[in-house]
Design brief:
single chain, Spore Coat Polysaccharide Biosynthesis Protein SpsA, Chain A, Rossmann fold, 6-stranded parallel sheet, disordered N terminus, nucleotidyltransferase, Cytidylyl_trans
Protein backbone atom coordinates (compact mmCIF):
# COMPACT_ATOMS: atom_id res chain seq x y z
CA UNK A 1 0.00 0.00 0.00
CA UNK A 2 1.57 3.27 -1.11
CA UNK A 3 1.49 6.40 1.09
CA UNK A 4 -1.19 9.03 0.27
CA UNK A 5 0.32 12.08 -1.40
CA UNK A 6 -0.64 15.67 -0.70
CA UNK A 7 -2.28 15.95 -4.12
CA UNK A 8 -4.36 12.83 -3.44
CA UNK A 9 -5.43 14.33 -0.10
CA UNK A 10 -6.51 17.53 -1.85
CA UNK A 11 -8.35 15.51 -4.54
CA UNK A 12 -10.11 13.45 -1.87
CA UNK A 13 -11.01 16.62 0.04
CA UNK A 14 -12.41 18.22 -3.12
CA UNK A 15 -14.51 15.15 -3.87
CA UNK A 16 -15.83 15.13 -0.30
CA UNK A 17 -16.67 18.81 -0.58
CA UNK A 18 -18.56 18.18 -3.83
CA UNK A 19 -20.54 15.35 -2.27
CA UNK A 20 -21.38 17.50 0.75
CA UNK A 21 -22.51 20.28 -1.58
CA UNK A 22 -24.83 17.87 -3.39
CA UNK A 23 -26.26 16.61 -0.09
CA UNK A 24 -26.86 20.16 1.10
CA UNK A 25 -29.04 21.10 -1.85
CA UNK A 26 -32.50 22.01 -0.59
CA UNK A 27 -35.15 19.78 -2.14
CA UNK A 28 -38.71 21.09 -1.90
CA UNK A 29 -41.94 19.30 -2.74
CA UNK A 30 -44.61 21.64 -4.11
CA UNK A 31 -48.26 20.66 -4.59
CA UNK A 32 -50.27 23.14 -6.65
CA UNK A 33 -53.85 23.40 -5.36
CA UNK A 34 -55.73 26.40 -6.67
CA UNK A 35 -59.21 27.01 -5.28
CA UNK A 36 -60.90 27.82 -8.58
CA UNK A 37 -60.71 24.46 -10.37
CA UNK A 38 -62.58 24.38 -13.68
CA UNK A 39 -63.24 20.64 -13.49
CA UNK A 40 -64.55 19.82 -9.99
CA UNK A 41 -65.16 22.67 -7.50
CA UNK A 42 -62.53 22.52 -4.73
CA UNK A 43 -61.54 19.06 -5.97
CA UNK A 44 -58.19 19.27 -4.19
CA UNK A 45 -59.88 18.86 -0.80
CA UNK A 46 -62.85 16.77 -1.89
CA UNK A 47 -62.93 13.49 0.00
CA UNK A 48 -61.61 10.52 -1.97
CA UNK A 49 -62.15 7.26 -0.07
CA UNK A 50 -62.54 9.27 3.11
CA UNK A 51 -59.35 11.34 2.70
CA UNK A 52 -59.01 14.84 1.16
CA UNK A 53 -57.49 14.47 -2.31
CA UNK A 54 -54.32 16.39 -1.40
CA UNK A 55 -54.05 14.28 1.77
CA UNK A 56 -53.05 11.23 -0.27
CA UNK A 57 -50.03 12.92 -1.89
CA UNK A 58 -49.05 14.90 1.22
CA UNK A 59 -48.89 11.66 3.21
CA UNK A 60 -46.77 9.94 0.54
CA UNK A 61 -44.43 12.94 0.24
CA UNK A 62 -43.88 13.29 4.00
CA UNK A 63 -43.23 9.57 4.45
CA UNK A 64 -40.73 9.54 1.56
CA UNK A 65 -38.42 11.66 3.76
CA UNK A 66 -36.61 13.08 0.71
CA UNK A 67 -37.88 16.65 1.00
CA UNK A 68 -36.33 19.37 3.11
CA UNK A 69 -39.67 21.15 2.93
CA UNK A 70 -43.12 20.27 1.61
CA UNK A 71 -45.51 22.95 0.42
CA UNK A 72 -49.03 23.35 -0.86
CA UNK A 73 -49.39 26.39 -3.11
CA UNK A 74 -52.91 27.77 -2.91
CA UNK A 75 -55.08 30.87 -2.95
CA UNK A 76 -57.91 29.39 -0.87
CA UNK A 77 -58.42 29.51 2.92
CA UNK A 78 -60.00 26.05 3.27
CA UNK A 79 -57.32 24.36 1.15
CA UNK A 80 -54.71 26.09 3.34
CA UNK A 81 -56.40 24.73 6.48
CA UNK A 82 -56.52 21.16 5.14
CA UNK A 83 -52.91 21.32 3.90
CA UNK A 84 -51.61 22.40 7.32
CA UNK A 85 -53.69 19.73 9.06
CA UNK A 86 -52.01 17.07 6.92
CA UNK A 87 -48.54 18.43 7.68
CA UNK A 88 -47.60 20.65 4.72
CA UNK A 89 -46.42 24.24 4.73
CA UNK A 90 -48.41 26.73 2.67
CA UNK A 91 -47.26 29.02 -0.11
CA UNK A 92 -50.01 31.62 -0.31
CA UNK A 93 -49.80 32.45 -3.98
CA UNK A 94 -50.52 35.91 -5.35
CA UNK A 95 -53.55 36.85 -7.45
CA UNK A 96 -51.26 37.16 -10.47
CA UNK A 97 -50.59 33.41 -10.49
CA UNK A 98 -54.09 32.30 -9.42
CA UNK A 99 -55.86 32.87 -12.71
CA UNK A 100 -57.40 30.28 -15.03
CA UNK A 101 -54.72 31.15 -17.57
CA UNK A 102 -51.77 30.80 -15.16
CA UNK A 103 -49.39 27.97 -15.95
CA UNK A 104 -47.85 25.64 -13.38
CA UNK A 105 -44.42 27.00 -14.31
CA UNK A 106 -45.43 30.58 -13.48
CA UNK A 107 -46.67 29.54 -10.03
CA UNK A 108 -43.50 27.54 -9.32
CA UNK A 109 -41.35 30.47 -10.44
CA UNK A 110 -43.14 32.70 -7.91
CA UNK A 111 -42.57 30.03 -5.25
CA UNK A 112 -38.85 29.99 -6.08
CA UNK A 113 -38.61 33.78 -5.81
CA UNK A 114 -40.25 33.66 -2.38
CA UNK A 115 -38.06 30.73 -1.23
CA UNK A 116 -34.53 31.42 -2.54
CA UNK A 117 -33.01 28.64 -0.41
CA UNK A 118 -34.64 25.98 -2.62
CA UNK A 119 -32.39 24.28 -5.20
CA UNK A 120 -34.55 21.42 -6.52
CA UNK A 121 -38.32 21.45 -6.91
CA UNK A 122 -40.57 18.41 -7.18
CA UNK A 123 -43.95 19.50 -8.48
CA UNK A 124 -46.33 16.81 -7.17
CA UNK A 125 -49.78 16.67 -8.75
CA UNK A 126 -52.63 16.66 -6.23
CA UNK A 127 -54.70 14.60 -8.67
CA UNK A 128 -52.41 11.55 -8.40
CA UNK A 129 -53.65 9.83 -5.21
CA UNK A 130 -51.95 6.46 -5.92
CA UNK A 131 -48.47 7.94 -5.52
CA UNK A 132 -46.25 6.06 -3.03
CA UNK A 133 -43.15 7.20 -1.12
CA UNK A 134 -40.85 4.80 -3.00
CA UNK A 135 -41.78 6.48 -6.31
CA UNK A 136 -40.63 9.85 -4.99
CA UNK A 137 -37.51 8.44 -3.32
CA UNK A 138 -36.24 6.81 -6.52
CA UNK A 139 -37.12 9.77 -8.73
CA UNK A 140 -35.58 12.44 -6.50
CA UNK A 141 -32.37 10.40 -6.20
CA UNK A 142 -32.07 10.49 -9.99
CA UNK A 143 -31.49 14.23 -9.61
CA UNK A 144 -29.57 14.34 -6.31
CA UNK A 145 -27.35 11.29 -6.90
CA UNK A 146 -27.33 10.52 -10.62
CA UNK A 147 -26.91 14.05 -11.91
CA UNK A 148 -30.10 14.57 -13.91
CA UNK A 149 -31.48 18.10 -14.23
CA UNK A 150 -35.10 17.07 -14.69
CA UNK A 151 -37.10 13.89 -14.11
CA UNK A 152 -40.78 13.31 -14.82
CA UNK A 153 -43.18 10.41 -14.30
CA UNK A 154 -44.58 8.28 -17.11
CA UNK A 155 -46.53 5.08 -17.57
CA UNK A 156 -46.78 2.62 -20.44
CA UNK A 157 -49.89 2.71 -22.60
CA UNK A 158 -51.12 0.57 -25.46
CA UNK A 159 -53.19 3.01 -27.51
CA UNK A 160 -53.23 2.98 -31.27
CA UNK A 161 -53.17 6.60 -32.43
CA UNK A 162 -54.62 8.05 -35.64
CA UNK A 163 -54.21 11.40 -37.31
CA UNK A 164 -57.12 13.74 -36.67
CA UNK A 165 -59.08 14.96 -39.67
CA UNK A 166 -60.47 18.45 -39.28
CA UNK A 167 -63.44 19.84 -41.19
CA UNK A 168 -62.36 20.68 -44.69
CA UNK A 169 -59.04 18.94 -44.15
CA UNK A 170 -59.76 15.95 -46.37
CA UNK A 171 -61.58 12.62 -45.88
CA UNK A 172 -58.57 10.42 -45.08
CA UNK A 173 -56.76 9.66 -41.85
CA UNK A 174 -53.65 7.61 -41.30
CA UNK A 175 -52.16 5.54 -38.51
CA UNK A 176 -49.52 7.28 -36.44
CA UNK A 177 -47.99 4.41 -34.49
CA UNK A 178 -48.98 1.16 -36.20
CA UNK A 179 -49.27 -0.66 -39.49
CA UNK A 180 -53.02 -1.42 -39.89
CA UNK A 181 -52.14 -4.42 -42.06
CA UNK A 182 -50.11 -5.93 -39.23
CA UNK A 183 -51.88 -4.91 -36.05
CA UNK A 184 -49.84 -6.27 -33.13
CA UNK A 185 -51.34 -8.09 -30.19
CA UNK A 186 -51.03 -6.21 -26.91
CA UNK A 187 -48.60 -8.78 -25.51
CA UNK A 188 -46.40 -8.43 -28.61
CA UNK A 189 -46.17 -4.62 -28.45
CA UNK A 190 -44.29 -2.84 -25.65
CA UNK A 191 -46.56 0.19 -25.97
CA UNK A 192 -45.52 3.82 -25.62
CA UNK A 193 -44.36 5.94 -22.70
CA UNK A 194 -46.73 8.79 -21.82
CA UNK A 195 -46.58 11.38 -19.06
CA UNK A 196 -48.91 10.31 -16.27
CA UNK A 197 -48.71 13.71 -14.56
CA UNK A 198 -47.83 12.39 -11.09
CA UNK A 199 -44.76 14.60 -10.63
CA UNK A 200 -42.16 16.77 -12.37
CA UNK A 201 -38.74 17.35 -10.79
CA UNK A 202 -36.42 20.11 -11.97
CA UNK A 203 -33.50 22.17 -10.74
CA UNK A 204 -34.11 25.78 -9.85
CA UNK A 205 -31.73 26.76 -12.66
CA UNK A 206 -34.03 25.16 -15.23
CA UNK A 207 -37.11 26.78 -13.72
CA UNK A 208 -35.41 30.19 -13.79
CA UNK A 209 -34.76 29.55 -17.49
CA UNK A 210 -38.49 28.98 -18.01
CA UNK A 211 -38.71 25.19 -18.40
CA UNK A 212 -39.71 22.23 -16.21
CA UNK A 213 -38.16 19.67 -18.56
CA UNK A 214 -34.70 20.27 -19.96
CA UNK A 215 -30.97 19.82 -19.46
CA UNK A 216 -30.05 16.21 -18.78
CA UNK A 217 -33.52 14.62 -18.74
CA UNK A 218 -34.85 11.26 -17.60
CA UNK A 219 -38.25 9.68 -17.12
CA UNK A 220 -39.40 7.60 -14.18
CA UNK A 221 -41.73 4.80 -15.25
CA UNK A 222 -44.58 3.97 -12.87
CA UNK A 223 -46.69 0.81 -13.18
CA UNK A 224 -50.12 1.50 -14.67
CA UNK A 225 -51.95 0.57 -11.46
CA UNK A 226 -50.41 3.60 -9.70
CA UNK A 227 -51.25 6.00 -12.51
CA UNK A 228 -54.49 7.94 -12.44
CA UNK A 229 -55.39 11.53 -13.14
CA UNK A 230 -58.65 13.13 -12.03
CA UNK A 231 -60.09 15.80 -14.30
CA UNK A 232 -63.86 15.49 -13.93
CA UNK A 233 -66.69 13.82 -12.00
CA UNK A 234 -66.65 10.71 -14.18
CA UNK A 235 -63.06 10.03 -13.04
CA UNK A 236 -63.97 10.26 -9.35
CA UNK A 237 -65.65 6.86 -8.68
CA UNK A 238 -62.97 5.13 -10.74
CA UNK A 239 -60.24 6.90 -8.77
CA UNK A 240 -61.89 5.98 -5.48
CA UNK A 241 -61.91 2.30 -6.34
CA UNK A 242 -58.33 2.44 -7.56
CA UNK A 243 -56.97 4.28 -4.54
CA UNK A 244 -58.60 1.77 -2.17
CA UNK A 245 -56.70 -0.97 -3.95
CA UNK A 246 -53.41 0.74 -4.82
CA UNK A 247 -53.22 3.86 -2.63
CA UNK A 248 -50.69 4.52 0.12
CA UNK A 249 -52.18 4.30 3.62
CA UNK A 250 -49.15 5.43 5.63
CA UNK A 251 -46.13 4.04 7.47
CA UNK A 252 -48.26 2.89 10.36
CA UNK A 253 -50.67 0.92 8.24
CA UNK A 254 -51.55 -2.05 10.47
CA UNK A 255 -50.80 -5.58 9.31
CA UNK A 256 -53.63 -6.94 11.41
CA UNK A 257 -56.71 -5.45 13.09
CA UNK A 258 -57.62 -7.65 16.03
CA UNK A 259 -60.29 -5.44 17.59
CA UNK A 260 -62.90 -3.00 16.25
CA UNK A 261 -64.64 -0.74 18.77
CA UNK A 262 -67.88 0.84 17.60
CA UNK A 263 -70.38 3.24 19.17
CA UNK A 264 -73.97 2.09 18.80
CA UNK A 265 -75.60 5.51 19.11
CA UNK A 266 -74.24 7.82 16.44
CA UNK A 267 -72.50 5.09 14.42
CA UNK A 268 -74.68 1.99 14.13
CA UNK A 269 -77.84 4.10 14.57
CA UNK A 270 -78.65 7.52 13.20
CA UNK A 271 -79.42 8.92 16.62
CA UNK A 272 -83.19 8.94 16.14
CA UNK A 273 -85.31 7.32 18.86
CA UNK A 274 -89.00 6.62 18.19
CA UNK A 275 -91.56 6.12 20.94
CA UNK A 276 -94.38 3.60 20.74
CA UNK A 277 -97.86 4.24 22.14
CA UNK A 278 -96.80 2.30 25.21
CA UNK A 279 -93.79 4.53 25.68
CA UNK A 280 -91.25 1.96 24.47
CA UNK A 281 -88.15 3.35 22.80
CA UNK A 282 -87.22 1.99 19.38
CA UNK A 283 -84.20 2.47 17.15
CA UNK A 284 -83.31 0.97 13.79
CA UNK A 285 -80.04 -0.60 12.64
CA UNK A 286 -79.01 -0.91 8.99
CA UNK A 287 -78.54 -4.50 7.81
CA UNK A 288 -75.60 -3.41 5.64
CA UNK A 289 -73.74 -2.31 8.77
CA UNK A 290 -74.36 -5.68 10.39
CA UNK A 291 -73.11 -7.42 7.23
CA UNK A 292 -69.94 -5.33 7.42
CA UNK A 293 -69.35 -6.44 11.01
CA UNK A 294 -69.83 -10.06 9.94
CA UNK A 295 -67.23 -9.60 7.16
CA UNK A 296 -64.67 -8.46 9.74
CA UNK A 297 -65.51 -11.23 12.16
CA UNK A 298 -64.94 -13.82 9.45
CA UNK A 299 -61.41 -12.44 9.10
CA UNK A 300 -60.79 -12.99 12.80
CA UNK A 301 -61.44 -9.47 14.08
CA UNK A 302 -63.26 -9.15 17.39
CA UNK A 303 -65.93 -6.43 17.38
CA UNK A 304 -66.96 -4.58 20.52
CA UNK A 305 -70.01 -2.33 20.75
CA UNK A 306 -70.46 0.51 23.21
CA UNK A 307 -72.68 3.47 24.08
CA UNK A 308 -76.34 2.68 23.56
CA UNK A 309 -79.55 1.52 25.22
CA UNK A 310 -78.89 -1.64 27.25
CA UNK A 311 -81.67 -3.68 25.60
CA UNK A 312 -80.47 -2.73 22.10
CA UNK A 313 -76.84 -3.55 22.84
CA UNK A 314 -77.85 -6.89 24.34
CA UNK A 315 -79.94 -7.85 21.28
CA UNK A 316 -77.20 -6.70 18.90
CA UNK A 317 -74.72 -8.80 20.82
CA UNK A 318 -76.97 -11.84 20.51
CA UNK A 319 -77.54 -11.27 16.78
CA UNK A 320 -73.98 -10.43 15.73
CA UNK A 321 -71.75 -12.05 18.33
CA UNK A 322 -70.26 -8.66 19.20
CA UNK A 323 -68.78 -8.20 22.65
CA UNK A 324 -70.53 -5.62 24.83
CA UNK A 325 -68.10 -2.97 26.09
CA UNK A 326 -68.80 -0.51 28.90
CA UNK A 327 -66.40 2.31 28.13
CA UNK A 328 -66.79 5.11 30.63
CA UNK A 329 -65.02 8.45 30.32
CA UNK A 330 -62.21 9.00 29.77
CA UNK A 331 -62.53 6.36 27.09
CA UNK A 332 -58.80 6.21 26.34
CA UNK A 333 -58.07 4.90 29.83
CA UNK A 334 -60.84 2.29 29.57
CA UNK A 335 -59.69 1.14 26.12
CA UNK A 336 -56.07 0.85 27.23
CA UNK A 337 -57.15 -1.33 30.18
CA UNK A 338 -58.99 -3.53 27.70
CA UNK A 339 -55.95 -3.63 25.40
CA UNK A 340 -53.73 -4.66 28.28
CA UNK A 341 -56.07 -7.55 29.11
CA UNK A 342 -56.07 -8.69 25.48
CA UNK A 343 -52.35 -7.93 24.96
CA UNK A 344 -53.04 -5.51 22.10
CA UNK A 345 -51.26 -2.44 20.78
CA UNK A 346 -53.07 0.63 19.41
CA UNK A 347 -51.99 -0.25 15.85
CA UNK A 348 -54.05 -3.45 16.15
CA UNK A 349 -57.20 -1.54 17.12
CA UNK A 350 -59.75 0.06 14.80
CA UNK A 351 -62.18 2.61 16.22
CA UNK A 352 -65.29 4.29 14.85
CA UNK A 353 -66.76 7.07 16.96
CA UNK A 354 -68.79 10.23 16.60
CA UNK A 355 -68.30 12.52 19.57
CA UNK A 356 -65.77 14.66 21.43
CA UNK A 357 -65.30 11.86 23.97
CA UNK A 358 -63.94 9.65 21.15
CA UNK A 359 -61.23 12.07 20.01
CA UNK A 360 -58.28 10.50 21.90
CA UNK A 361 -59.16 6.97 20.78
CA UNK A 362 -59.67 8.12 17.19
CA UNK A 363 -56.21 9.71 17.20
CA UNK A 364 -54.42 6.70 18.71
CA UNK A 365 -56.10 3.80 16.90
CA UNK A 366 -54.30 2.18 13.97
CA UNK A 367 -57.38 2.79 11.82
CA UNK A 368 -60.15 5.17 12.85
CA UNK A 369 -63.26 6.61 11.25
CA UNK A 370 -66.28 8.82 11.80
CA UNK A 371 -69.64 8.89 9.99
CA UNK A 372 -70.28 11.73 7.57
CA UNK A 373 -72.61 13.51 10.02
CA UNK A 374 -70.26 13.69 12.98
CA UNK A 375 -68.99 16.40 15.31
CA UNK A 376 -66.19 18.68 14.14
CA UNK A 377 -63.77 17.58 16.89
CA UNK A 378 -64.17 13.91 16.07
CA UNK A 379 -63.86 14.64 12.35
CA UNK A 380 -60.47 16.30 12.79
CA UNK A 381 -59.12 13.38 14.85
CA UNK A 382 -60.24 10.56 12.54
CA UNK A 383 -57.98 9.03 9.91
CA UNK A 384 -60.92 8.19 7.65
CA UNK A 385 -64.16 10.07 7.05
CA UNK A 386 -67.00 7.89 5.86
CA UNK A 387 -69.10 9.07 2.95
CA UNK A 388 -72.15 7.46 4.55
CA UNK A 389 -74.04 8.83 7.53
CA UNK A 390 -74.56 7.14 10.89
CA UNK A 391 -77.07 4.30 10.73
CA UNK A 392 -76.99 4.32 6.93
CA UNK A 393 -73.91 2.32 5.97
CA UNK A 394 -71.05 4.17 7.72
CA UNK A 395 -69.99 1.11 9.74
CA UNK A 396 -70.16 -1.12 6.64
CA UNK A 397 -68.05 1.38 4.73
CA UNK A 398 -65.42 1.46 7.49
CA UNK A 399 -65.34 -2.34 7.66
CA UNK A 400 -64.67 -2.45 3.91
CA UNK A 401 -61.99 0.21 4.34
CA UNK A 402 -60.31 -1.93 7.01
CA UNK A 403 -60.34 -5.00 4.75
CA UNK A 404 -58.95 -3.01 1.81
CA UNK A 405 -56.24 -1.48 4.01
CA UNK A 406 -55.04 -4.87 5.21
CA UNK A 407 -54.92 -6.46 1.75
CA UNK A 408 -51.89 -6.19 -0.55
CA UNK A 409 -52.65 -4.10 -3.64
CA UNK A 410 -54.90 -5.95 -6.04
CA UNK A 411 -54.96 -9.13 -3.96
CA UNK A 412 -57.17 -11.64 -5.80
CA UNK A 413 -58.17 -13.17 -2.44
CA UNK A 414 -59.71 -9.88 -1.26
CA UNK A 415 -63.46 -10.41 -1.07
CA UNK A 416 -64.24 -6.85 -2.09
CA UNK A 417 -61.74 -6.98 -4.98
CA UNK A 418 -63.46 -10.14 -6.22
CA UNK A 419 -66.78 -8.32 -6.21
CA UNK A 420 -65.17 -5.42 -8.12
CA UNK A 421 -63.74 -7.81 -10.72
CA UNK A 422 -67.14 -9.51 -11.04
CA UNK A 423 -68.82 -6.16 -11.63
CA UNK A 424 -66.32 -4.97 -14.23
CA UNK A 425 -66.26 -8.37 -15.98
CA UNK A 426 -70.05 -8.46 -16.27
CA UNK A 427 -70.09 -4.98 -17.76
CA UNK A 428 -67.19 -5.47 -20.18
CA UNK A 429 -68.81 -8.62 -21.54
CA UNK A 430 -71.49 -6.37 -23.08
CA UNK A 431 -68.85 -5.17 -25.60
CA UNK A 432 -69.60 -1.51 -24.97
CA UNK A 433 -67.02 1.18 -25.89
CA UNK A 434 -64.51 1.68 -23.06
CA UNK A 435 -65.47 5.29 -22.33
CA UNK A 436 -69.13 4.33 -21.99
CA UNK A 437 -68.28 1.81 -19.29
CA UNK A 438 -66.96 4.61 -17.12
CA UNK A 439 -70.05 6.65 -17.89
CA UNK A 440 -72.20 3.68 -16.94
CA UNK A 441 -70.36 3.12 -13.65
CA UNK A 442 -70.63 6.78 -12.73
CA UNK A 443 -74.31 6.84 -13.64
CA UNK A 444 -74.88 3.64 -11.66
CA UNK A 445 -73.49 5.26 -8.51
CA UNK A 446 -75.67 8.33 -8.97
CA UNK A 447 -78.86 6.38 -9.64
CA UNK A 448 -78.43 3.94 -6.76
CA UNK A 449 -77.38 6.57 -4.26
CA UNK A 450 -74.45 4.39 -3.23
CA UNK A 451 -71.11 6.03 -2.55
CA UNK A 452 -68.56 3.37 -3.56
CA UNK A 453 -68.24 0.58 -6.08
CA UNK A 454 -68.02 -1.86 -3.20
CA UNK A 455 -71.52 -0.87 -2.10
CA UNK A 456 -72.76 -1.34 -5.66
CA UNK A 457 -71.19 -4.78 -5.71
CA UNK A 458 -72.86 -5.71 -2.43
CA UNK A 459 -76.23 -4.53 -3.77
CA UNK A 460 -75.82 -6.48 -7.00
CA UNK A 461 -74.24 -9.74 -5.87
CA UNK A 462 -75.19 -10.44 -2.27
Amino acid sequence: MHPVTENEKKSSSNQSTKLDTVKERHVAGVILARGGSNGIPLQNIKLLAGVPLIGWVIRAAIDSDVFDSLWVSTDHDEIERVAKKWGAKVHRRSAEVSKDTTSSLETIQEFCRMNPEVDIICNIQATSPCLHPHHLIQAVEMVTKQGYDSVFSVDRRHHFRWQEVTKGGGPDTKALNLNPAKRPRRQDWPGELCENKSFYIATKKLIDEGVLQGGKMAYFEMPAEYSIDIDNDIDWPVAEQKVLRFGYFGKDKPELVRLLLCNVLGCLTDGQISLSANGDERVSVNSRDLDGITMLQRKGTEVGINRGPAKLIYKLSQKTGCVVMSLNEPKQVEVEKLMKEKKLEWKEVAYIGNDATDVDCLSLAGLSAVPLDTSAMALIAAKYRCQSTAGHGAVREFCEHILHSLQPAGNPQCQTCQYDQHLVKSITQTHWPYDNIYCFLSQLLRQTGLSTFSEVNAALFF
